[in-house]
Amino acid sequence: xxxxxxxxxxxxxxxxxxxxxxxxxxxxxxxxxxxxxxxxxxxxxxxxxxxxxxxxxxxxxxxxxxxxxxxxxxxxxxxxxxxxxxxxxxxxxxxxxxxxxxxxxxxxxxxxxxxxxxxxxxxxxxxxxxxxxxxxxxxxxxxxxxxxxxxxxxxxxxxxxxxxxxxxxxxxxxxxxxxx
Length: 180
Prior knowledge:
Blueprint: H1 3-36, H2 41-68, H3 73-92, H4 98-120
């Protein structure tokens, strides 16, 4: 088994472990907060499922839209909103102290950080080979060619006036790769 496959497998296992633990904590906190504010038990679970699965779905939707080159603005705003709902439920259920709030927020913040890393990682795209062009070292000075006297070459009046190929004009910068 290759080193990349092992590392990839370890990453997936860590993401799943953090995701399952963060999900369990978030589901429980959303459920408990809903029930504590007068809703029946089943609505507590419905709210937990809605909030947590929407956040996961929206993360996947952002990734799919990026691959397709579609805008992600509204979906990203919704993802932040559902993540904040989850985080708010976790903090609301915590001991009312700074450390209580921080400890309650850790699972959600860890999962959000992992999701951000996963969603922002782009697959490696091999460099596109350039079309066959002669290899030119841009440090080399262009070869000086004797100018052709203007009387020898007279373009028609409607034709654009360009210098003959290979003639270097001292008042113009040289650009490599322009096809005339």
